[in-house]
Prior knowledge:
By secondary structure, the chain is an alpha+beta fold.
Amino acid sequence: MNKSILLGRLTKAPEIKYSQTNDMKIATFSLAVNRRFTKVGEERQADFFNVVSYSKLAEFVEKYLKQGLQVCISGRLQNRNFEDKNGIKRYVTEVVAEEIYLADSFKKVEKDNTQEVVSEELKEKNTSEEFISNGDDLPF
Length: 140
């Protein structure tokens, strides 16, 4: 069974390409995944994985994914090889995404001023202390 599940952040904006044969959309990006454990006195280490998605999933990537966004990717590992411009054979291991889930909220990603205003208004209207001031008023 070939199954990979990764939770991490995009290191840069996805690159969009089209296949030469059937003009299919291809999205590629790199995902930084923190290691679970750290050594005493050292900073947290991360591993970087190349991810590729095709067709409809590539359209989703192009529309919604941005640098720094945290996502969960489910897919499979794939090895491939090719010859570069100099005729040297190169080998690549990448994750072929089959499912992508957003792990950050859009509010956090967009950082829209109107959302900050709404948050401030909610804080000002938070009057829960007034309702609980007298225990006799509780409905139960």
